[in-house]
Amino acid sequence: MQIVVLRIGHRPERDKRITTHVGLVARAFGAKEMLLTGRDPSIEESIGDVAERWGGGFKLRSDVAWRDEARRWKDLGGKLVHLTMYGSNLPSVIDEIRGCDKIMIAVGAEKVPAEMYDLADWNVAVGNQPHSEVAALALFMDRLLEGKELEIDFGEGLKIIPTPRGKTVIDRPARGEQSSEPCSEEKGKET
Prior knowledge:
The protein has helices at residues 12-28, 41-54, 66-75, 90-98, 114-119, 133-145; strands at 2-8, 33-36, 59-61, 79-89, 102-108, 122-125, 157-161, 168-172. The chain is α/β, with parallel strands linked by helices. The protein has a six-stranded parallel β-sheet with strand order 3-2-1-5-4-6. Strand 7 (157-161) and strand 8 form a beta hairpin. It is globular.
Protein backbone atom coordinates (compact mmCIF):
# COMPACT_ATOMS: atom_id res chain seq x y z
CA MET A 1 0.00 0.00 0.00
CA GLN A 2 1.35 3.41 -0.97
CA ILE A 3 0.60 6.12 1.61
CA VAL A 4 1.24 9.85 1.31
CA VAL A 5 0.30 12.50 3.89
CA LEU A 6 -0.84 15.94 2.73
CA ARG A 7 -0.44 18.66 5.37
CA ILE A 8 -2.77 21.56 4.58
CA GLY A 9 -2.46 25.05 6.03
CA HIS A 10 0.91 24.99 7.79
CA ARG A 11 1.53 28.31 9.56
CA PRO A 12 5.31 28.60 10.13
CA GLU A 13 5.04 30.96 13.11
CA ARG A 14 2.57 28.71 14.92
CA ASP A 15 2.70 25.10 13.65
CA LYS A 16 6.41 24.11 13.55
CA ARG A 17 6.27 21.42 16.24
CA ILE A 18 2.89 20.00 15.25
CA THR A 19 3.75 19.82 11.54
CA THR A 20 7.10 18.22 12.40
CA HIS A 21 5.24 15.66 14.52
CA VAL A 22 2.79 14.99 11.67
CA GLY A 23 5.81 14.21 9.49
CA LEU A 24 7.45 12.02 12.13
CA VAL A 25 4.26 10.01 12.64
CA ALA A 26 3.72 9.72 8.88
CA ARG A 27 7.24 8.32 8.45
CA ALA A 28 7.25 6.05 11.50
CA PHE A 29 3.83 4.60 10.67
CA GLY A 30 4.60 3.74 7.04
CA ALA A 31 3.96 6.73 4.75
CA LYS A 32 6.56 7.25 2.04
CA GLU A 33 6.12 11.00 1.66
CA MET A 34 4.63 14.11 3.23
CA LEU A 35 3.45 17.01 1.11
CA LEU A 36 3.49 20.39 2.84
CA THR A 37 1.45 23.31 1.50
CA GLY A 38 3.92 25.86 2.86
CA ARG A 39 7.64 26.15 3.04
CA ASP A 40 9.46 25.91 6.36
CA PRO A 41 13.22 25.27 6.31
CA SER A 42 13.27 24.15 9.96
CA ILE A 43 10.74 21.37 9.23
CA GLU A 44 12.56 20.38 6.06
CA GLU A 45 15.79 20.12 8.06
CA SER A 46 14.24 18.19 10.98
CA ILE A 47 12.39 15.66 8.83
CA GLY A 48 15.35 15.30 6.46
CA ASP A 49 17.71 14.66 9.38
CA VAL A 50 15.46 11.96 10.85
CA ALA A 51 15.00 10.26 7.48
CA GLU A 52 18.75 10.28 6.86
CA ARG A 53 19.78 9.09 10.33
CA TRP A 54 17.00 6.53 10.90
CA GLY A 55 16.54 5.22 7.33
CA GLY A 56 13.41 4.35 5.40
CA GLY A 57 13.61 6.69 2.43
CA PHE A 58 10.88 9.10 3.63
CA LYS A 59 10.57 12.29 1.55
CA LEU A 60 9.16 15.74 2.29
CA ARG A 61 7.96 17.93 -0.55
CA SER A 62 7.28 21.54 0.41
CA ASP A 63 5.32 24.39 -1.08
CA VAL A 64 2.83 22.20 -2.93
CA ALA A 65 -0.58 23.32 -4.17
CA TRP A 66 -2.93 21.02 -2.24
CA ARG A 67 -5.77 21.06 -4.81
CA ASP A 68 -3.42 20.16 -7.65
CA GLU A 69 -1.78 17.38 -5.62
CA ALA A 70 -5.13 15.93 -4.50
CA ARG A 71 -6.56 16.00 -8.02
CA ARG A 72 -3.39 14.51 -9.55
CA TRP A 73 -3.43 11.73 -6.93
CA LYS A 74 -7.04 10.89 -7.74
CA ASP A 75 -6.40 11.07 -11.51
CA LEU A 76 -3.67 8.45 -11.02
CA GLY A 77 -6.13 6.09 -9.31
CA GLY A 78 -5.40 7.02 -5.70
CA LYS A 79 -7.99 7.61 -2.99
CA LEU A 80 -8.15 10.65 -0.73
CA VAL A 81 -8.92 10.39 2.99
CA HIS A 82 -9.50 13.64 4.87
CA LEU A 83 -9.14 13.35 8.65
CA THR A 84 -11.70 15.56 10.40
CA MET A 85 -13.95 15.57 13.46
CA TYR A 86 -16.98 15.90 11.18
CA GLY A 87 -16.70 12.83 8.96
CA SER A 88 -17.80 9.22 9.07
CA ASN A 89 -16.67 7.38 12.16
CA LEU A 90 -13.39 5.54 11.59
CA PRO A 91 -14.66 2.05 12.51
CA SER A 92 -17.49 2.39 9.96
CA VAL A 93 -15.22 3.01 6.95
CA ILE A 94 -11.77 1.58 7.71
CA ASP A 95 -12.38 -1.80 6.06
CA GLU A 96 -13.43 -0.13 2.82
CA ILE A 97 -10.40 2.21 2.90
CA ARG A 98 -8.05 -0.68 3.68
CA GLY A 99 -8.94 -2.19 0.29
CA CYS A 100 -7.19 0.66 -1.58
CA ASP A 101 -3.66 0.48 -2.99
CA LYS A 102 -2.89 4.21 -2.99
CA ILE A 103 -4.03 6.46 -0.17
CA MET A 104 -3.42 10.16 0.38
CA ILE A 105 -4.26 11.26 3.93
CA ALA A 106 -5.11 14.97 4.24
CA VAL A 107 -4.45 16.53 7.65
CA GLY A 108 -5.33 20.16 8.30
CA ALA A 109 -3.58 22.75 10.43
CA GLU A 110 -5.97 25.65 10.23
CA LYS A 111 -9.52 25.59 8.91
CA VAL A 112 -9.56 23.23 5.94
CA PRO A 113 -11.17 24.67 2.79
CA ALA A 114 -14.69 23.36 2.15
CA GLU A 115 -13.53 22.03 -1.22
CA MET A 116 -11.49 19.34 0.57
CA TYR A 117 -14.67 17.81 1.99
CA ASP A 118 -16.00 17.45 -1.58
CA LEU A 119 -12.72 16.20 -3.08
CA ALA A 120 -12.19 13.53 -0.43
CA ASP A 121 -13.32 10.00 -1.10
CA TRP A 122 -13.80 9.73 2.67
CA ASN A 123 -14.05 12.37 5.36
CA VAL A 124 -13.07 10.34 8.41
CA ALA A 125 -13.62 11.23 12.04
CA VAL A 126 -11.15 9.80 14.52
CA GLY A 127 -13.42 10.70 17.40
CA ASN A 128 -15.94 13.53 17.37
CA GLN A 129 -14.24 15.76 19.91
CA PRO A 130 -11.49 18.37 19.54
CA HIS A 131 -8.12 16.60 19.45
CA SER A 132 -4.69 16.66 17.88
CA GLU A 133 -4.17 15.99 14.19
CA VAL A 134 -1.03 14.08 15.21
CA ALA A 135 -3.11 11.70 17.32
CA ALA A 136 -5.72 11.38 14.57
CA LEU A 137 -3.05 10.49 11.99
CA ALA A 138 -1.41 7.92 14.28
CA LEU A 139 -4.71 6.26 15.17
CA PHE A 140 -5.90 6.24 11.56
CA MET A 141 -2.65 4.74 10.25
CA ASP A 142 -2.58 2.14 13.03
CA ARG A 143 -6.13 1.04 12.18
CA LEU A 144 -5.38 1.16 8.44
CA LEU A 145 -2.28 -1.03 8.75
CA GLU A 146 -3.66 -3.17 11.59
CA GLY A 147 -0.55 -2.73 13.73
CA LYS A 148 1.85 -3.93 11.02
CA GLU A 149 3.45 -0.46 10.94
CA LEU A 150 5.04 -1.31 14.28
CA GLU A 151 7.08 -4.04 12.54
CA ILE A 152 8.50 -1.92 9.69
CA ASP A 153 12.20 -2.44 9.05
CA PHE A 154 13.61 0.87 7.89
CA GLY A 155 16.81 -0.75 6.60
CA GLU A 156 19.99 1.18 7.21
CA GLY A 157 20.44 3.81 9.89
CA LEU A 158 19.76 3.95 13.58
CA LYS A 159 17.59 1.26 15.14
CA ILE A 160 16.39 0.90 18.70
CA ILE A 161 16.72 -2.59 20.14
CA PRO A 162 13.81 -3.10 22.55
CA THR A 163 15.01 -3.75 26.09
CA PRO A 164 13.13 -3.78 29.40
CA ARG A 165 15.60 -1.24 30.88
CA GLY A 166 18.20 1.07 29.44
CA LYS A 167 18.64 2.17 25.87
CA THR A 168 20.25 0.21 23.09
CA VAL A 169 20.61 1.87 19.71
CA ILE A 170 22.59 0.39 16.86
CA ASP A 171 23.74 2.12 13.70
CA ARG A 172 23.10 -0.16 10.73
CA PRO A 173 25.37 0.68 7.84
CA ALA A 174 24.35 1.24 4.25
CA ARG A 175 25.05 -1.70 1.94
CA GLY A 176 28.76 -2.22 1.44
CA GLU A 177 29.77 -0.48 4.71
CA GLN A 178 31.04 -2.24 7.84
CA SER A 179 28.76 -2.91 10.77
CA SER A 180 29.09 -0.78 13.89
CA GLU A 181 28.70 -1.46 17.59
CA PRO A 182 25.71 -0.26 19.60
CA CYS A 183 25.68 3.49 20.23
CA SER A 184 24.71 3.02 23.86
CA GLU A 185 23.81 0.26 26.25
CA GLU A 186 23.86 2.25 29.45
CA LYS A 187 20.65 2.76 31.36
CA GLY A 188 19.32 6.28 30.86
CA LYS A 189 22.04 7.38 28.43
CA GLU A 190 20.69 9.46 25.56
CA THR A 191 22.06 8.96 22.05
